[in-house]
């Protein structure tokens, strides 16, 4: 039965929204957090294993030093307090994809303590998201439910477990309760998650591909009657792995909880799951508190000692952060705020930068990636990065246009053939014969034929009315199958009517 929902505007007007995000970022180390098992996405199930990742008796964990350094990098980027001493703890709970029956995580002594991230919204507003900690832990495996609808456990005949992901290093970034967002809570949540994605990619510590599970978030939501009232009971929607899903989860939970509270009901503290098909959340289990996990220091792992000199060494290697990079490129490319926002929203910043580095103008690169190529990506249902064309290819097309070897129509045809896998732009142009007609004699003959076929247009041009010029250019284009250069056609026509 469908749950009762309050209109969003009414809900955010009646209640103060408080939310929080627990973001899991899978680190792109070569091996797992506590053992040398190799990590490879999409590998044959249950082949990337060691006795440690399977939790076999007598096996002992050893910390991956690279994973710790990655955590420090992220802590610095999030303005966190990097703790000199941190400790791994056992978080006890049973899931079939957790072979040890406990997770090795960090609790009261995380590597990264309090911090913050300033998030820039589309209208330029900057909202500060407070961070409680960013701790290190290992991931669980993956369940595959067979026989049910859409791979869900409901109605499944049986389940399969792949332990390849068990033991993969994660950083969990936990915000403090985020207040003061009002009706912009979903927008802020989406912007925050995109900012985290951009930061971990800039740092080179994660691929952050949500569709591959590299990054996902638990969305906590509660409502209270006013900003000075105690925090309300929260729900936690687990493992949302799209930006839109996170935004929609927030909107739905605000509307659902507001309807319950408005009728005098109570919010159940529980985990929930976002259903993309129905665009709703569904109840899971009653939410456990920290005490239920029976945290205690892992006796097999000593405390981590991170010296200030080591932090300083990593800090000296930090790359330019995404927000500063965007502002720099915006100025270098002479883009307006709206143009840069379009680039960011299209997730085309890296592609345009690489295209410019390959020799294209910023305006030309933007035209292709946000125009023809964006439409093609939408048609194929893929990201821009997944298209079968590279920034170097786009820059080559731009150069062919600048050299007068292609016009816009031929350039679009060239790009389409490159996307179809027919080779580089130069190879396509040569094989398909897509060059602009540059032989003055051949082009002049075609122009003369067009002028003879359109004497009325010629008379108007002779009288000084230049508007009909397009008719002659169009006739020449049809005759040359779009391979004529419009400027050359105009030049020839003007020389003949004088």
UniProtKB/TrEMBL annotation:
Catalytic reactions on record: L-aspartyl-tRNA(Asn) + L-glutamine + ATP + H2O = L-asparaginyl-tRNA(Asn) + L-glutamate + ADP + phosphate + 2 H(+); L-glutamyl-tRNA(Gln) + L-glutamine + ATP + H2O = L-glutaminyl-tRNA(Gln) + L-glutamate + ADP + phosphate + H(+)
One annotated GO molecular function: glutaminyl-tRNA synthase (glutamine-hydrolyzing) activity
InterPro entries cross-referenced by the UniProt entry: Asn/Gln-tRNA_amidoTrfase_suB/E, Asn/Gln-tRNA_Trfase_suB/E_cat, Asn/Gln_amidotransferase, Asn/Gln_tRNA_amidoTrase-B-like, GatB, GatB_Yqey_C_2, Gln-tRNA_amidoTrfase_suB_CS, Gln_synth/guanido_kin_cat_dom
Boundaries of every Asn/Gln amidotransferase domain copy: 350-497
One biological process term in Gene Ontology: glutaminyl-tRNAGln biosynthesis via transamidation
Key words, A-Z: ATP-binding, Ligase, Nucleotide-binding, Protein biosynthesis, Transferase
UniProt-listed SUPFAM superfamilies: GatB/YqeY motif (SSF89095), Glutamine synthetase/guanido kinase (SSF55931)
Keyword match Protein biosynthesis: yes
Gene3D superfamilies membership: 1.10.10.410
Domain of life: Bacteria
Keyword Iron tagged: no
EC numbers for this chain: 6.3.5.-
NCBIfam families documented for this protein: gatB, PRK05477.1-2, PRK05477.1-3, PRK05477.1-4
General function of this protein: Allows the formation of correctly charged Asn-tRNA(Asn) or Gln-tRNA(Gln) through the transamidation of misacylated Asp-tRNA(Asn) or Glu-tRNA(Gln) in organisms which lack either or both of asparaginyl-tRNA or glutaminyl-tRNA synthetases. The reaction takes place in the presence of glutamine and ATP through an activated phospho-Asp-tRNA(Asn) or phospho-Glu-tRNA(Gln).
Subunit structure and binding partners: Heterotrimer of A, B and C subunits.
Family named by the database record: Belongs to the GatB/GatE family. GatB subfamily.
Protein name: Aspartyl/glutamyl-tRNA(Asn/Gln) amidotransferase subunit B
Gene behind the chain: gatB
């Amino acid at each position: 039965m469908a749950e009762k929902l309050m209109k969003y505007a009414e809900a955010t007007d009646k209640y103060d929204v408080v939310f929080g995000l627990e973001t899991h970022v899978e680190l792109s180390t070569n091996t797992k957090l506590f053992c040398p098992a190799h990590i490879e996405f999409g590998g044959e199930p249950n082949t990337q294993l060691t006795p440690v990742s399977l939790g076999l008796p007598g096996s002992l964990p050893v910390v991956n030093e690279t994973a710790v350094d990655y955590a420090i990098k992220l802590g610095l980027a999030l303005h966190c307090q990097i703790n000199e001493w941190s400790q791994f703890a056992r978080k006890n709970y049973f899931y079939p994809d957790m072979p040890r029956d406990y997770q090795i995580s960090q609790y009261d002594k995380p590597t990264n303590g309090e911090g913050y991230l300033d998030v820039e919204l589309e209208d330029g507003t900057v909202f500060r998201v407070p961070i409680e900690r960013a701790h290190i832990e290992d991931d669980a495996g993956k369940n595959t439910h067979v026989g049910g609808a859409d791979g869900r456990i409901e109605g499944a005949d049986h389940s399969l477990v792949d332990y390849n992901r068990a033991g993969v290093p994660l950083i969990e970034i936990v915000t403090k309760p985020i207040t003061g967002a009002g009706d912009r809570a979903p927008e802020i949540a989406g912007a925050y998650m995109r900012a985290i994605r951009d930061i971990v990619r800039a740092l080179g510590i994660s691929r952050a591909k949500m569709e591959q599970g590299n990054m996902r978030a638990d969305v906590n939501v509660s409502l209270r009657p006013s900003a000075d009232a105690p925090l309300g009971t929260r729900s936690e929607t687990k493992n949302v792995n799209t930006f839109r899903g996170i935004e929609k989860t927030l909107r739905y939970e605000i509307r659902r909880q507001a309807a319950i509270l408005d009728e005098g009901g109570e919010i159940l503290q529980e985990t929930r799951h976002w259903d993309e098909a129905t665009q709703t959340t569904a109840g899971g289990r009653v939410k456990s508190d920290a005490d239920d996990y029976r945290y205690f220091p892992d006796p097999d792992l000593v405390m981590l000692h991170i010296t200030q000199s080591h932090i300083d060494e990593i800090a000296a290697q930090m790359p330019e952060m995404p927000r500063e990079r965007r502002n720099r490129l915006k100025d270098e490319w002479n883009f307006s705020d709206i143009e840069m926002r379009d680039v960011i929203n299209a997730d085309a910043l890296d592609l345009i930068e690489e295209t410019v580095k390959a020799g294209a103008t910023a305006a030309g690169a933007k035209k292709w990636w946000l125009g023809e190529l964006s439409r093609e990506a939408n048609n194929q249902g893929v990201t821009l990065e997944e298209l079968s064309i590279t920034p170097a290819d786009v820059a080559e097309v731009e150069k062919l246009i600048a050299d007068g070897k292609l016009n816009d129509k031929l350039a679009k045809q060239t790009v389409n053939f490159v996307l179809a896998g027919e080779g580089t732009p130069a190879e396509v142009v040569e094989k398909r014969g897509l060059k602009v007609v540059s032989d003055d004699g051949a082009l002049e003959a075609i122009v003369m034929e067009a002028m003879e076929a359109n004497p009325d247009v010629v008379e108007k041009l002779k009288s000084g009315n230049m508007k009909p010029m397009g008719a002659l250019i169009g006739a020449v284009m049809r005759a040359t199958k779009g391979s004529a250069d419009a400027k050359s056609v105009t030049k020839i026509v003007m020389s003949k009517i004088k």
